[in-house]
Amino acid sequence: MSLSNRFLLLGSTAAFATVGAAHAADLPVKKAEPVEYVRICTTHGVAFFYIPGTDTCLRISGRTRFEGNYQTTYSRQTGTGDTSGYRGLLRFNFDARTRTEYGTLRALVRLDAASRTGLIHSGTQLRIGHSYAATGVDEAGRAQQHVNVDKAFIQFAGLTAGRAASYFDFYAHDFEFYGATSGSDTSSTNLLAYTATVGDGFSATLSVEDPVYRRTPVFAPYATTATTPVGPVFVGYADGLPSRYGTIDSIQRSRLPDFVGALRVEQDWGSAQLSAATHEINVGNLSTAPADGTGGVITGVAHTGSVQGWAVQGGVKVNTPFIAPGDALYLQGAYGDGTQNYVGYCMIAGCYAQANTGFGGQKFAQSFADASINPFTGQLQTSTSFSAVASFLHYWSPEWRSAIFGSYGEQDFSAGARLAQGAAYSLVSPNGAVAFGANAVGVPGTRFYQLSQALRDSYQYVVGASLIWSPVRDLDIGVEGFYTQVGVKSGRVIDSDKSPTAYANVAGINAGTFVPRTATQDSVSQIRLRVQRDF
Length: 535
What we know:
The protein is mainly beta. It is built from 5 helices and 30 strands.
């Protein structure tokens, strides 16, 4: 190629490059999307941030916990023997808040999940329905996975709707691990409430709450099936004497909600609350097919009317910084008629079983029943109960603190209620065809009637203490121990531990050919270790 041709080629290449560059400069340039970083929200407190693209502030927090439990009990009874248990727990909290012209709109979700083995219960009153258990890895059900929707509620302009703690509660085992003392502690229920703030720390709340989580059973002396407890009611008479009876399904239905009212004050010195509640007690209808007996006149199928139980509670929390910063004292008392769970006279294992034992191998079961069905009138007869609790928290130093606590409670059944069940005992099953089991009252005047555990007035007291070390913020390493005693208020009862076959030998007890071992009280000591991290 000649020199002139080379210059021509280079010139053409340069021209094309210049034109291409000019056209490229005219094309639009795609810029990177701006990154929207998470912004801190200081309006609602610490650790909130704005959800990107919204004006809603969110706080995410949680908890991890290990617990080990041991109790000093020994039993000869079948199926018992566990004295220890362990639990690992996780918790997630999502707290979303938005400022509106009506005030803060809030939604809180709290989910608990736990893996527990052996003899260990939850830290508040364990109620059926608070969690569901997955299939365990132990053939006897001693290894269980539990999930609990602890909180899921909305708050707006004084309104609270969803799953939240009952507004009746006050102390609610604030200073305890195990929640062993008497006193109401329903941390998860379904409710719709309105709170009016008066000023100077005063507020008033009216709450409509789910009655299921407040129920204890209606006493039923026997069951027609393994899961259907029933109470007999006489519907036929011959020569003025009961001759035929029907059975009432004693499982309560969901009809009226519970109504709760609370007056509360919170000031620098502490807080106080006065609560009241109503609670409907109801049962199913009477069977239309009268059972045992022949002859006589059937008086018809009576209907057992529902009754309204009620409860009142008063409590005060006094801050005592003059002893040490952070110190506080709780005092609380409650009384109820047909509302045992509101009073909180219960076992840690729950109130849902009418013949309840709170620790493995307990010598006798306490009757946890809001009412019984009179077999002669077909109407409900309520029980009464009360509880008193005190708890004091003291900081030895910013890293070390202790709590001491104690409670006393009683439950009473009317003398007429027990006599009525006893009078029906032999009439319902004169030949022993109906197996009453541990809920048998017995015929008044007999030795068995004097010793049977069903519908006996009982008491319970608890004393305990804890020591907690918090070496760094949001980390607790602690141990708690407590002593529980239960007993009957008068007389003696059969010791089911030393005489496990006694309730199958009623005739022998009455004839004096079988003399069972008896007791007036039983007790247990328990200790729990906890390591907990909140974040």
